[in-house]
Amino acid sequence: MHFVLAEGGSFQPIPWGLRLRIAIDAARGLAFLHSSEKHVIYRDFKASNILLDTNYNAKLSDFGLARNGPTGGDSHITTRVMGTYGYAAPEYIATGHLYVKSDVYGFGVVLLEMLTGLRALDTARPAQQLNLVDWAKPYLADRRKLPRLVDPRLEGQYPSKAALRAAQLTLSCLAGEPKNRPSMAEVVTVLEEIERIRPRHRRASPEEDRESSSSASSRSAHHGRRHQQQSPRPRSGSDGARSGQPSPRVR
């Protein structure tokens, strides 16, 4: 996915629906690992570990850092911190405690990349925007600021309600405490609901209705004058022309 979406330091403007489909496929992969008998933790979930086939079906790759999850009622395992900065969950970086929901945080980062079209970390950005999560969180929490966050190369071609729900889901995945994050099964459910949201057709304002009506009337009048000017003249040999009577109207 990294090579399909990234070009010149930013993501290519692939359509909203395709971004969602990739996210759903990846989320299903993580949900499958988490629901397995050993509750496998991927540990290094990031955009470059999502591979796409020619039909843009997403599959997870590179399980080199994956670990079996906690057993016996434990909430986490303790392990040496490994992974990719910018995607690793804060509790894992700080303590080495790895939770199943540490993967959910990484998924939230990738979802944020899809929403914004920006990399998780980019040294070419201003210092305050270096870390995408730190910079974007205030926008995710404010629906009035959200349009400034969504990838402008989508050119508004997405349902605003869907973008809002995706932002809310992203924010919940990025919660500071693992217990406050959704499970990946819950993430899949929400993403599927978002995918079903269709754009609303905006109703024209009264002013736009009047302008449209005026424009239609003008076009109609112009068409009528043009039709009169271009109407074929009666043939000189027609009965109507010889008698001086108007030609009959064909119904």
TrEMBL record:
Residues 1-194 form the Protein kinase domain. PROSITE patterns: PROTEIN_KINASE_DOM, PROTEIN_KINASE_ST. This is Protein kinase domain-containing protein. Residues 198-251 are annotated as: Disordered. Residues 229-238 have a biased composition (Low complexity). One of its GO terms (molecular function) is ATP binding. InterPro entries: Kinase-like_dom_sf, Plant_Ser_Thr_Prot_Kinase, Prot_kinase_dom, Ser/Thr_kinase_AS. Pfam families: Pkinase (PF00069).
